[in-house]
């Protein structure tokens, strides 16, 4: 099967969705069925892709229009990409089911889902592409869709303001990455990732003439600009300022997607450039120092800001900053263990954070407020949602049988290779975050609803009903959290280690494209 | 004044423009001015890309090879078309971003009656 078509599928579905919505008129089920069909089809393709990538010993290459590597744009998918693509498509499918129910009271959902499908195309494209400029285009596809769905509640001031802040910061950041590409292109004379890697490591490649000037300096500037971009896009200190406002204003399914899959694209890009394309990067000591410093600051900032939040969505938003800080720190180690930890933590964080957002979204849907004090006591009338909320928080804190514990442990081990002091950051910030989650949990579950608050009226506590669709989605995610946790040693051994091994083998990455190019020329 | 100096001077000016754009986005409090400064920055980067592909020779040939000159001479005198293609893509993306940002600025003006970010933050704190 031609796997290159995967990002094209959601893009095509997104393109025809507004027209379908006009034809469907008032029949809401047409839009819902359309979106679920699109996301499940993409999920199916991604499963085929993952199987193919794990069976094939080398990265898979697809060239658009038959134009081979340095001339045309290619998609290059190794196991690292395939693993993330599969996780992303499953996450989008579950989020689509959740969003269909969550937004059932809103108007104009077809535009929201157009944005969601565009976002899926952008994220998948960014994970799969083998071309540095195509990555920029995919970042912008992803960005434009994300900025639109964050501002979905266009009559709420905070929502539109958060979207404006996010859009302006994101547009500025991606421009910096574009400038960085200028340095790489003028020095190495190519934009294909495999070709860039070949030029950088001194491997001969057809059609590309060779390096100009000092490639080490050019790559150093490129890394400086790319890290600046990732700081904003992945919300690492000091580029995190837009995130709490954007998440507070966004609909819950959009915030869950942003937190789980969109933020990590920046981390994925850095991992791809550090471990595959520019394996053994210049100025690696300085880069490591930047990663450790900013990651540590970001983790502490996220953890301590979680303690003072009164809004449930903002609390989860700061938790995202905390976890992006962990990933950023782990990138600085630049060993195979670090790449394994980053890959596994991206997957586990996405699953657990999506579950946490969905549980919080159930409270918000039932009560219409995200204020923790006003949510006091809601948990008693929604016991199953509260159980899911508890599993998600326990997992994110890092309680042993659940999935995030194992990836946090891998990050801890990776950081121990550098210094016990840096590794201790993970433990300290987890403890602070645990206290913040505990307080929110206690208020929501055992808290006494105060006078004038939404959870109680004259006849006693209001009994909120739990929606079956929400419960179904959360059940799937709870099972994923528990079973991925229980099967962790097996999964890391069978899937994550080969993925990291293949991602670090830049020779194989170049060879896959090189052989295709030589076959044509 | 040599051609090399002219090239260097243009690059310097464009870098200055880019830094000015970043400065403007950060310091201006008016949303419309922020969008304008973002455009100045984006266009400076686009111009830098055009300069990467430019050849400092006369006459400059268009990048279409028809066997009219030896290939070595063609490589030396033809403009590199790749940066132009990249800029074309970036310009289109920039337009999409402009539309989106302007839409949000208009919507904020409708909701708050101002496009000044400090006033909007102030109104938000008052619980509007």
Question: Care to describe what's here?
Answer:
The complex is a heterodimer of chains A (521) and B (128). Chain A has helices at 8-24, 28-55, 79-102, 109-128, 132-150, 157-188, 193-201, 215-233, 243-249, 252-277, 284-307, 312-331, 336-367, 378-381, 383-397, 403-416, 420-446, 468-486, 488-504, 506-520, and strands spanning 60-63, 74-77, 456-457, 460-461. In chain A, helix 11 (284-307) packs antiparallel against helix 12 (312-331), helix 11 (284-307) runs parallel beside helix 17 (420-446) and helix 15 runs parallel beside helix 18 (468-486). Chain A contains 20 helices and 4 strands. Chain A has a domain at 286-486. The relative contact order of chain A is 0.11. Chain B is mostly helical and 128 residues long. Chain B has a single domain (3-125), classed as Orthogonal Bundle (Helix Hairpins). Chain B has 5 helices and no strands. Chain B has helices at residues 3-27, 31-53, 71-77, 81-112, 117-125. In chain B, helix 1 (3-27) runs antiparallel to helix 2 (31-53). The termini of chain B are far apart. Chains A and B meet through helix 5 and helix 6 of A and helix 1, helix 2, helix 4 and helix 5 of B.
CATH class of chain B: Mainly Alpha
Largest interface: A-B, 29 and 33 residues
Ends apart, CA distance between termini of chain B: 60 Å
Largest sheet of chain A: 2 strands, antiparallel
**DSSP summary: helix tally of chain A:** 20
- Average pLDDT taken over every residue of chain B: 87
Helix run count of chain B: 5
Strand content of the residues of chain A, in percent? Answer: under 5%
The end-to-end distance of chain A, rounded to whole angstroms, is 24 Å
Strand-and-helix sequence of chain A, N→C? Answer: HHEEHHHHHHHHHHHHHHHEEHHH
Q: What is the strand tally of chain A?
A: 4
- The residue fraction in helices of chain B comes out at over 70%
Question: How many strands of chain B?
Answer: 0
Overall mean pLDDT of chain A: 89
Task: Write down the oligomeric state.
Answer: heterodimer
The percent range for strand residues of chain B is under 5%
């Amino acid at each position: 099967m031609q796997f290159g078509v995967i990002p094209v599928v959601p893009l095509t579905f997104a393109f025809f969705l507004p027209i379908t919505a006009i034809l469907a008129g008032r029949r809401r089920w047409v839009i819902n069925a359309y979106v679920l069909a699109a996301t499940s089809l993409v999920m199916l393709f991604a499963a085929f892709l993952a199987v193919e990538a794990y069976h094939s010993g080398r990265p898979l290459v697809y060239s658009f229009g038959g134009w081979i590597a340095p001339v045309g744009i290619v998609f290059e998918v190794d196991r690292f990409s395939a693993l993330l693509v599969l996780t992303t498509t499953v996450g989008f499918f579950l989020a689509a089911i959740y969003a269909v129910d969550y937004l059932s009271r809103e108007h104009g959902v077809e535009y929201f889902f157009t944005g969601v499908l565009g976002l899926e195309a952008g994220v998948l494209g960014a994970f799969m592409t083998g071309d540095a400029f195509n990555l920029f285009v995919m970042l912008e596809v992803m960005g434009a869709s994300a900025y639109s769905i964050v501002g979905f509640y266009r009559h709420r001031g905070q929502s539109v303001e958060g979207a404006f802040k996010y859009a302006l910061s994101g547009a500025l950041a991606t421009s910096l990455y574009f400038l960085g590409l200028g340095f790489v292109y003028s020095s190495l004379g190519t934009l294909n990732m495999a070709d860039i890697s070949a030029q950088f490591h001194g491997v001969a490649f057809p059609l590309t003439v060779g390096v100009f000037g000092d490639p080490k300096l050019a790559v150093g500037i490129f890394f400086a600009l790319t890290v600046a971009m990732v700081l904003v896009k992945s919300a690492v200190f000091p580029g995190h300022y837009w995130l709490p406002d954007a998440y507070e204003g966004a609909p819950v399914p959009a915030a869950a997607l942003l937190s789980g899959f969109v933020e990590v694209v920046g981390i994925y890009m850095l991992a791809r450039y550090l471990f595959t394309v520019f394996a053994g990067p210049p100025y690696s000591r300085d880069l490591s120092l930047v990663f450790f410093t900013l990651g540590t600051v970001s983790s502490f900032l996220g953890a301590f800001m979680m303690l003072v939040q009164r809004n449930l969505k903002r609390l989860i938003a700061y938790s995202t900053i905390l976890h992006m800080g962990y990933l950023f720190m782990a990138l600085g180690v630049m060993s195979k263990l670090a790449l394994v930890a980053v890959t596994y933590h991206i997957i586990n964080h996405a699953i657990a954070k999506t579950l946490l957002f969905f549980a919080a979204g159930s409270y918000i849907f039932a009560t219409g407020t995200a204020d923790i004090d006003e949510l006091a006591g809601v948990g008693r009338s929604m016991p199953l949602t509260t159980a899911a909320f508890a599993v998600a928080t326990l997992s994110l804190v890092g309680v042993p049988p659940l999935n995030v514990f194992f990836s946090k442990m891998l990050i801890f081990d990776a950081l121990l290779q550098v210094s016990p002091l840096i590794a201790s950051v993970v433990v300290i910030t987890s403890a602070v975050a645990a206290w913040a989650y505990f307080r929110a949990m206690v208020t929501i579950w055992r808290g006494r609803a105060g006078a004038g608050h939404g959870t109680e009226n004259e006849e006693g506590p209001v009994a909120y009903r739990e929606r079956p669709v929400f419960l179904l989605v959360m059940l799937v995610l709870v099972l994923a959290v528990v079973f991925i946790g229980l099967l962790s040693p097996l999964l890391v051994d069978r899937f994550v280690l080969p993925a990291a091994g293949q991602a670090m083998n830049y020779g194989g990455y170049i060879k896959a494209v090189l052989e295709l190019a030589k076959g044509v020329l | 004044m040599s051609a090399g100096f002219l090239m260097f001077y243009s690059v310097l000016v464009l870098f200055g423009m880019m830094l000015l754009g970043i400065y403007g986005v950060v310091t201006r409090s008016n949303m419309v001015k922020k969008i304008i400064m973002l455009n100045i920055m984006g266009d400076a980067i686009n111009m830098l890309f055009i300069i990467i592909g430019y050849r400092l020779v006369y006459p400059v040939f268009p990048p279409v090879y028809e066997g009219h000159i030896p290939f070595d001479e063609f490589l030396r005198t033809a403009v590199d078309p790749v940066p132009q293609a990249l800029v074309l893509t970036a310009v289109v993306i920039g337009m999409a971003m402009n539309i989106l940002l302007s839409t949000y600025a208009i919507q904020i003006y409708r909701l708050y009656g101002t496009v000044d970010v400090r006033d909007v933050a102030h109104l938000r704190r008052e619980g509007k």
